[in-house]
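Could you show me some protein's one-letter sequence and the numbers that encode its backbone in two labelled lines?

___
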Amino acid sequence: MRLAVGARLGSYEILSALGAGGMGEVYRARDTQLEREVAIKVLPQTFVADTERVARFEREAKVLASLNHPHIAAVYGLDEADGVRALVMELVEGDDLAERLTRGPIPLDEALAIAKQVAEALEAAHEHSVIHRDLKPANIKLRPDGTAKVLDFGLAKAMEPAGASSMDAIASPTITSPALMTGIGVLLGTAAYMSPEQARGKGVDKRSDIWAFGCVMYEMLTGKRAFDGEDMTDVLGAVVRLEPDWNAVPSDVPPAVRTLLRACLVKDRRQRVGDMSTVLFVVANTASLDATAPGEAQAATLGSGKAAKQSWRRMVATAAAALVAGAALAQWYFRRAPTAATTGQAPVRLSLVPAADVALAAGVNQLVPVVSPDGRRVAFSASRPGEPIRIWVRSLDSLDARPLPGTDNARGPFWSPDSGSLAFFSDSKLKTIDASGGPVQTVSEVRQHSTIRGASWSRTGTILFAGRTGGLMKVTAGGGEPTPATVVDTTNGDASHAFPTFLPDGREFLYVSRPSNTLWLGTLDSREATRLFSSDSQAFYADGYILFARQGTLLAQPYDVGRATLAGAPTPIADRLAVDPIVGASAFSSSETGVLVYRTGAGSSQTQLLWVDRAGNEISKIGKADRYRNPELSNDGTRIALEAADSGNRTQDLSILDLPGGAASRFTVDRGNDVYPVWSPDDSRIAFGSDRQGGIYKLYEKMSNGSPGEKLLLPSTGAPDLNGPWDWSPDGKWLLFRNMSPETGIANTGILSLSGDPAIRNLFPRSDFFHQSSAQISPNGRWVAYHSSETGRFEVYVARFPNPSGGQPISTGGATHPRWGDDSRELFYHAADGRIMAVPISGTTTLEVGTPDPLFTARLLGGPAAVAGFRAQYDVSAKGQRFLLNVPVDETPEFTAITVVLHWTAGLRK
């Protein structure tokens, strides 16, 4: 909260606001007990509930308290009153260095005096294993008496031992603004003073402080920043690629200082000055390093006795130190690798890291970040806990990423050719919205294409999009009825066209035929198409190259757009692209201006099946890691049925793992996707969904012993989307399945009788506005648990089975994927914060629900936000004492960052 003048915070009276610091608002206050004025930094109320930020704020007090130094602002205490946390600090009067620099360059003697004090402060901090990480002119105060004080060590990070992980450093933001408190994606450090390693999203050490010191000293001497630009993209590009304007350094700056500046600003930190003691030595001894000092030598020669010997020793020591420092600086400077300034442009990689309370989406048509054609903005799907997934927009020259109102549960966003608007799919409609926000406009109904597999907007005003089956459709951006744009050649086994992307002329476009995964060049003027090469997902043309993906690797293929011909061999650009296993899209896009964005993660990685106990402790691994999804434990606990992707994540077959060893065998083999295996009550059969015939999902069953032959249970579930079984009733009479409406794209739960009338119905009252799915029948057959989005977020409910009359809420705060214990007395679910919860259930005619009990936090495939295309990625053994988990193999968090590459084609041309 903002404190008013005159407000009291414990024994402190607020006098005025001073500004916003890196981790909170800063006020001038009066200590009524000690009768002195202090500075108070107050943690914003938006952070109070964030335990990580609170811990970081408390760390600031401890760090400052350990740095008792005349050139570091002192900390007096850490107080809390009325729910407000405040750091009480020394009030340093005077301008900060940034204010001083608005009046122009600083004279050499004054600049060296300031630099010496700042170097002493940093040296003291480094000796306490503390790095500042955000040194800049605004964090250096200049008192009227000439004393310099370094402020805001609040984002300091204790230096880690060699080989330790730097993830903590990477996760701590050092740019803060009011917008950022609700934003997503922060880069470390303030842009103009970032080291190249910070700009690339890597960990920091004391050499990052040395870089920032060099930037500050350069600015003091020249009056301008070492690295500048019109926006953040330009600044960060300069940091990584360019050299400062060395000609701007005044001619009166001594050679030792010039060499020091160059050695501080070496981009490869391995060759940068390695310690502040060296910096301090040069700054403090500039005169002796650059003078011949004949007078002192003569005095030493002419003197006699003890004084002469001491003078001689001082001169020799100074000369020796100068030689050592000079040799070291020369070695660092001349040994460095050629820079981008001498070798041409080089690609610049940046990381956009989500804020702690924001999760990048991982569902169907929500995985791909899309960069605007002008390369200035990135759109992506994300959500906060308890809120729906929305489209977020982040300008690369801003720290503010914000959600677009009206885009709840939107899928498949793509940009207009002028980069001013976004189009997306929602409620079985194609819609548009201004990228800066505003009213949502409906372009067209797309009910018959409930799962979109790519879309693109041309300069000519035509939008192409791909549905689950058939050819591409086209519609004018101004609105109308979609009409066919391509016709699928089924003679080679293909069933659909997907992933259209326009070339710059707005007439030609790339697309993929599936399941052959062949990339084609088409045109709006003709149904004729030119075959190019094999591609697993979408492709983009940019600056003489086609970007595409194969088996999770991003590749660049030289392409002559004028002649429509390929040249040379493809070059790998990035590995482990995240892949949408339902749609098949890889998580990348490219602008016309040479900006590439992509995500890596679990979409293309392997998973490991684990047994854990009720506390989450690992008991054992099950078999080898593989590309597994949607595991289902047999009723007798001896086998696991699950989906296993092929090597390119293009199709899903079913496999069975025998326990306890986890030996795997293929259960189905075909060209389609076989999904959602469910065991019959006696484990003799497995029901599943498959799109093997024409792309429409149908329900099948097969003997679990692998005997040949499969029985068709339901010819069509009614929608060309991923539909498959949820559960088989204990008496064997009913099969519950995911039943998406072809009109609305809303997932409901269908119920199919296996003992009589094959007609199907929806288990719950049909809704055109929210999903009701992931249904699980209790072992006693009385209840059905499911998750529903009727409140605007997914929560778990329980209703009577087989004729529910309304569900009773079980969870609060967001939850999905319920599972029953084998005695029907306990229900488990996956909470939005990642924890597995257990809820006591009792009652026969009336449901009695106990208090949910958190068991452990589970890092499952897709995370808590994964709903579409996922069943529960966990199962429960007999008596609920062991849990089967499907966990990503990669130890780093999945889907947590977007990588931005500027000038990505420059490296290829080199």
About this structure: The two ends are 53 Å apart (CA to CA). The chain has a mean pLDDT of 80. The first strand starts at residue 8 and ends at 9. The chain has four domains: 1-91, 97-152+170-343, 358-603+896-909, 606-888.
